[in-house]
Amino acid sequence: MADPDNLEYYIKFPNPNFNYNQHNNDSDFVFVVDEDKIPVILLFGWAGCEDKYLSKYSQIYEEKGLITIRYTAPIKCLFWKRYRMIAIADKILKLLLDLNFESHPVIVHCFSNGGAFLYHNFSLASEKSTQQIQIKGVIFDSAPGKRRILSLYKAISAILGGNIFYNFSISVFMTMFLSVIWMYEVWLSLDKSYNGSLSLYNWLQDIEYFAEYRKNKGVEVSTLCFEKSPHVKHYSCHREEYVNSVCSFINKCLNGKTI
């Protein structure tokens, strides 16, 4: 379990001899990058995400020679110790600055509402900082979504445990309260007008509503709807299409093209 007091992150740098002109076996996609300012991909996991699952996504970018940083916020900070998210976001920003990444292009890839909420706090920390980082775009995988009430209830119920009647009443109350607060905060993050965003979702998730909201705010938005894949399982069900879409999006962000 991630410790909010000690940032439990995972970082991976490309091989110094990585050939950015080569094609790998998985895709013909190649990034044209400044090797002195290699793009950084921040991956923010969903609530309760284990790193062994998040690492499968970071591998997409590592195979392309990009720097990856993975982090999943502790469940208790996403639900009832939410004030700690500010400190976590500040630590992530400080990490980037300590690594001298302020001149590197940064892409955020966040998953579900847990990742989107962390992104919200990270964007606020970036705004307040006197040292700016170059956020070029955001990928929303299965987020933000309005219909995750049942998942939120199950997560809270599992954490509380104990007597079934006490558990049910407290879980229902916390679910209703947190769903309203969480969605409001995630909505605020959608106002950040970075170069663009890519939303990956299935037809059961109300992602198009949020994508349209961002478009109306003047943000360039791309969307990709998968017909038959579960929540945060689009990559495992549609590997080739998923990889091509995120790589194409990042390439456009890095080259300053309209998305």
From TrEMBL:
Membrane disposition: Single-pass membrane protein
Bilayer-crossing regions: 164-184
One Pfam family named in its UniProt record: DUF829
UniProt entry keywords in alphabetical sequence: Membrane, Nucleus, Transmembrane, Transmembrane helix
Keyword Membrane: yes
A GO CC term assigned to this protein in UniProt: nuclear outer membrane
Domain of life: Eukaryota
Keyword Transmembrane: yes
Database matches in InterPro entries: AB_hydrolase_fold, DUF829_TMEM53
Annotated family: Belongs to the TMEM53 family.
Protein's UniProt name: Transmembrane protein 53-A isoform X2
Origin species: Agrilus planipennis
